[in-house]
């Protein structure tokens, strides 16, 4: 039995029951693939169900505000995925009459859809022979064939895509889902089940005792350390202030408390001076430290050393927001956790 047939046999016996596997509707498949790009199934599943309930069709999503989409996405991270998803929903509705393109070449032109997602939609929904290559597939192929080319190098990306073409099965819909599932469950990153693996006889990595050395990745760029100081201003009516992040940085278009970013961790004296400048209209205020030790929020490329400073004032905020409505705003999970824990 060849490689691809073993994958199909394994998949038929071990596949998980997931809601998007009950349909060929490209909207459902697209939604699940966007969510699972950098998210485990266990975490992504409730978000998928929440989105399908709120936006049953691509037209429903296109008609919604970006703010509503971001609010539903809150907690999944990588918010550019949500913004791109919303933009693509509008394109599908306005330019394709609500119907997703049926070919890889057309799908990959849509915003936020790369090689992997276009291949997944084209093969699963329209049976187009396009192999998928995601993190799970890289792992299976690199281990089975003993390939030590870095999977995040241009040479590696090209090599593995060509290899995926060579070994794919004509039953492309089940094969693509099967090899991804195999990589997620059987050929897992840290504890693969090599002892009972149907591919063990031909696995080069297993034969050479290199299972935990593959796949190879080039070293990531150095993680930056940043220092965030959020000013939680509370007036006499217990109103506060939220600002919307703009620009192309992290958390674009999400809301946050006024932010002071510093080069290092700072103390109360520095914050008092900065608050006086930022909120010059406040006649009097008292500042207290919410968290003595910084909360370290780890992102892929930077670690945020975060402190929340409570700024109490007897003055009225002209642009204040009632604390009862705070949870309506899409915010980073770091801010959401604070809002849930702090008693205004």
From TrEMBL:
It comes from the Bacteria. Transmembrane segments: none annotated. The keyword DNA repair applies. Its cofactor is [4Fe-4S] cluster. Binds 1 [4Fe-4S] cluster. Residues 35-185 form the HhH-GPD domain. Keywords: 4Fe-4S, DNA damage, DNA repair, Glycosidase, Hydrolase, Iron, Iron-sulfur, Metal-binding. It catalyses: Hydrolyzes free adenine bases from 7,8-dihydro-8-oxoguanine:adenine mismatched double-stranded DNA, leaving an apurinic site. It is an enzyme of class 3 (hydrolase). SMART domains: ENDO3c. The keyword Hydrolase applies. Its EC number is 3.2.2.31. NCBIfam families: mutY. Belongs to the Nth/MutY family. Adenine glycosylase active on G-A mispairs. MutY also corrects error-prone DNA synthesis past GO lesions which are due to the oxidatively damaged form of guanine: 7,8-dihydro-8-oxoguanine (8-oxo-dGTP). This is Adenine DNA glycosylase. It comes from Croceitalea rosinachiae.
């Amino acid at each position: 039995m060849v490689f691809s047939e073993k994958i199909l046999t394994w998949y038929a016996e071990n596949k998980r029951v997931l809601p998007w596997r009950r349909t060929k509707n490209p909207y459902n498949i697209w939604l699940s693939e966007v969510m699972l790009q950098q998210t485990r199934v266990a975490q992504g599943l409730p978000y998928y169900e929440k989105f399908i309930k709120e936006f049953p069709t691509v037209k429903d999503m296109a008609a919604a505000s970006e703010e509503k989409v971001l609010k539903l996405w809150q907690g999944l991270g990588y918010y550019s995925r949500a913004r791109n998803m919303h933009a693509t929903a509008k394109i599908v509705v306005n330019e394709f009459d609500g119907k997703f393109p049926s070919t890889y070449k057309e799908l990959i032109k849509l915003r936020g859809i790369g090689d992997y997602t276009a291949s997944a939609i084209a093969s699963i929904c329209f049976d187009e022979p396009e192999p998928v290559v995601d993190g799970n597939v890289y792992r299976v192929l690199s281990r089975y064939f003993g390939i030590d080319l870095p999977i995040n190098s241009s040479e590696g990306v090209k090599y593995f895509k060509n290899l995926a073409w060579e070994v794919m099965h004509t039953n492309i819909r089940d094969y693509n889902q099967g090899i991804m599932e195999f990589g997620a469950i059987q050929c897992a990153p840290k504890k693969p089940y090599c002892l009972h693996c149907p591919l063990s006889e031909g696995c080069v990595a297993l034969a050479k005792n290199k299972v935990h050395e593959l796949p190879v990745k080039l070293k990531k760029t150095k993680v930056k350390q940043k220092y965030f100081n959020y000013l939680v201003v509370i007036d006499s009516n217990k109103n506060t202030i939220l600002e919307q992040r703009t620009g192309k940085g992290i958390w674009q278009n999400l809301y946050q408390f006024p932010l002071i970013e510093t080069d290092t961790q700072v103390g109360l004296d520095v914050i008092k001076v900065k608050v006086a400048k930022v909120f010059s209209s406040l006649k009097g205020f008292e500042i207290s430290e919410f968290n003595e030790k910084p909360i370290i929020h780890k992102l892929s490329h930077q670690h945020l050393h975060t402190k929340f400073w409570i700024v109490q004032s007897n003055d009225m905020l002209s642009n204040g927001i009632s604390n009862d409505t705070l949870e309506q705003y899409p915010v980073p999970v770091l801010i959401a956790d604070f809002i849930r824990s702090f008693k205004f």
